[in-house]
Fold these 4 entries.
Entry 1:
Amino acid sequence: MILSLRLQNIADIVSSDSIVADIGSDHGLLPISLVVNKRTKKTYAIDIAIKPLNQAKDNIMKYDVGNSVYPILSDGLENLPDDVNTLVFSGMGSKTIINIISKDISKLKNISEIIMEPNIGSYDIREFMSSLNYSIVFEKTILENDVYYDIIKCSLGKQELTTREKLFGPYNLKHIDINFINKWTLIRKKMVSLVRKIPESSPQKNKFIEELSLIDEILKTTID
Ligand SMILES: C[S@@+](CC[C@H](N)C(=O)[O-])C[C@H]1O[C@@H](n2cnc3c(N)ncnc32)[C@H](O)[C@@H]1O
């Protein structure tokens, strides 16, 4: 089976033989592919809504993985099985991911790895994971259909992050690649035009200017 580039990059960093729950799984293609490609033996496709869960069930039947991919109707981690040790959150905003985890923090007791692809708000995700004593062990910037996505993998372990690391990602900063440079060049362009439009009196203006100078500093190191 062929996954989208975004989902394939997530699948590629799932630790082999982990037991994965894909939260907000929708079609279920990620947990199905992990089993079909023998990366893991057992996965869960979790969704809050019946319609996407039925789609996941149809796909589970289609790929004949009913004895290893289990669909579960659940609001976030509410009905998370105890044997899960890895969570995946993809295609959701940071606020939704943070709300889901905050609501059921005790469910993290067996979770050693969390992989996230927040559609927006990577800064907040990094800050939140650090506050929960997870550390970022891998990051990647993906470009798919003209949209940049951040993929962030965390493992249990303490990690303090600077503002710069929360903004760009501590792993990204040590492994700068072309997608990272292009993404931040694009953001810079949008921010420059935004800052010009913000009135001097607005408290937002300084925040954007500070962020712009951090972006300039990083992009400069990629040219030097
Ligand atoms: C945009 S889809 C993302 C699907 C897939 N993860 C991907 O990346 O392609 C978001 C899914 O999250 C589900 N969802 C939203 N809030 C949820 C929650 N609190 N618990 C479980 N699933 C949720 C939605 O029903 C929807 O199917």
Entry 2:
Amino acid sequence: MIRGLKYPLSRYTVHRPGTEPIEAVNQQSSTEQQTRNRLIDQDLARAGWSASRRTLIEEFVLSAQPDSPTLGNTPEFADYALLGADGNPIAIVEAKRSSRDELAGKRQASDYADRAAWHAFKELMEAFYEKGLHAGLPFTAAGTPVTQGGITYADFVQAFRDAHRLNPDPNAREVCVLCGGPLGAAPEVDHWIAKHAFPLLSMCADNLLPTCGDCNATSNKGRMPVHDHGSFQDWFHPYFRPGVGAIRLNYQLPGFAVTCAALTPADDVRVQRLDALLNLSQRWTRELKAEYANQQGKLKRYEAQRLSRGQARHTQAEVEAFATSFRDGLLESEPNHEVHRLLGNALLEQARLAAWQTELGLVT
Ligand SMILES: [Zn+2]
């Protein structure tokens, strides 16, 4: 217990994580280093805290946490960290010149202690997720304690996949709940609210969702925040405020650009946020163009086959029948269903049908 230490020449603050800072004030001015050497080190040693006994660390590094909402980018140092019996920091000591504002010193020590506690807590929760879940937790999915056979990362992913299988056939393609694209053979478990900023949610089932690799890529969602400085009002949430049925896809000819819009004005900002988070417009535009090229290639091949057999070229009615067949044959359970349906509608526009037939006329 270090509460009550007094220094005649310096102002310093002491703060144990979870308690209010305490401080001692002296009257004379001195540099931090001089004060420390002459007085603080000696007093701390008399109280049982010293580097030689390995109960104290000088210039204690407060790890930089570049993505944390509360921490800065530059590594910072606290003057001292006092260590408990287990070797972990239990208190932070900051030396301050007596000419400096007392409250500022208190705030700084308090802030440093919060950062040290935060860092230790974050490491604990991430270990629970990174190591515990992958190796198997000592609990069933229902929360019952077990000594072996607890839930694992693989169990979680499998349960999620089973629950979201649009086509019950185990061989059917699965769909990513975020982008509607293919889930892929090895979906990634994404923390909707990033675990580095909210470590307590790293093991919360409502914060976990397997997504496709593209959605989880750093160029898309990655570790991006899904809130505005802690406010979730303008954001969809996969479980609590899903965007299903709230988004309308539009397309623009002739470029086949896809844009997202909200069905109701109340969701305008949420749709914009989601679009920006996952780059949906951009990715869906790419998919629309890719599928168009795919269908275009098929029709050109049919045209070439006809010509090679001495048959007549496709009429516009036949091109329309091809596009109608494409649109009507789409399965809702297939990846990119919404984007392909959009393409089906675009292909059946009269101007697009005419342009398509003109393209076919160039096939030899
Ligand atoms: Zn996805």
Entry 3:
Amino acid sequence: MYKLLLIYVFLLPSLTEPPTRSLPVLQTDTLPAKSATAMHFDSLGLTNIADVDSTIRVDLMYASPHNFTGRVLYDNLKEGYLHPDAAKALAAAQKELRKRKPGYSLIVYDATRPMSVQQKMWDVVKGTAKNIYVSNPARGGGLHNYGLAVDVSLVDPTGKPLPMGTEVDHLGYAAHINAEDALIQKGVITAQQRANRVLLRTVMKHAGFRTLPTEWWHFNFCSRQVAKQKYKLIK
Ligand SMILES: [Zn+2]
């Protein structure tokens, strides 16, 4: 092996011109740099989901324009952060999912959302019919603003999201979870899509999360009352 390496080193300059350009650049630091918002969250004692379970996929929908506002709401954040209590529960949900469906994974579309971003989101829906789907910052925001809510779905072993009947962030009746029988009867969602939602709910509830009637992808770690008593708002 050593001899082969020597031959390679001596042959390399003669095979390629100019030799100085043919040398590979050493990658000393392959880890992506942490965003400024992530470092702010670190300073507040929040937990990066990747640190509790690196197999959980994170693809923040407000870091791109592919969300219901059509705008980028996160200037730099790309990491998913939660309060440590909620992060621990999410790792337990991933563990339960993998026990039931080896190779499958949770995919996180939003987690901790600072109040400054909540305000941007509210400004988009204010005065429209969609305002029922967004927590008003003037009334203290919602559980995302405490790091205690997560928008999450499931991916199969190839990384493809399981069909759930609507896109994540679809604001409307088809995303509601309290009348799925009717949605199936009307042909709005299929029985398989409902089964996928049930699997997601099962593993999330197993880990202690609560559902939200209007959004199949949204899960709260505790009630709003408990959040206000025990936890801090993230600015
Ligand atoms: Zn949500």
Entry 4:
Amino acid sequence: MPPIPGSGLAKGLAVTLRTMTKRSHTAQYPDAQPELPPRTRGVIGLFEENCTVCMLCARECPDWCIYIDSHKETIPAVTPGGRERSRNVLDRFAIDFSLCMYCGICIEVCPFDALFWSPEFEYAETDIRDLTHERDKLREWMWTVPAPPALDPAAEEPKEVAAARKAVEKAEAAAAAAAAQAAAAAAQDAPTTGPGTPGTPGTPGTPGTPESPAGGTAR
Ligand code: SF4
Ligand code: SF4
């Protein structure tokens, strides 16, 4: 059956009338910031204090877009005759976000919790070369990483939290014991005050010289 002339127009007007009184859901970015889910993969933040330059993230990155430079530093022995130690010092940590495909493998494989997802997404550039971001910028993004969700109250205490708690308790117990010991020593050294016991009478001695009388006082 051929369509009735003008029925399409009537349908369109009906839709317009139905929706024109409803509230719009369009967010007018950048005037209105989008409400992003907490686990948004916006950009990668680096907590460089945790990075040991193990290179695992750079090796596992499928796009080879993590650039790390480092050098070795020798730490002198702490005890006489001890062994010198060496550690890696981070010189450069950069990620090329024009190559990154936001797979998250680098964050997953990092054994020292040095990489995190940040929801920050406003880092578009007009020149693709400016999308390689160095450690200072990655560190800045670190402070935009949301706090982890609260633990399930019935969950087992994480090992690192338990270890930290035990260390604090041990330190507090040691400090309390030292304070108690110091207080006991101070109480022992303090001179006895108050009425006290009557003194023992002096024994009669030999008469001394006028300058330094010796012996007890005879009554
Ligand atoms: S998210 Fe994936 S592609 Fe991007 S740097 Fe990490 S491992 Fe490489
Ligand atoms: S895997 Fe983690 S600790 Fe190792 S180099 Fe990468 S960020 Fe640093």
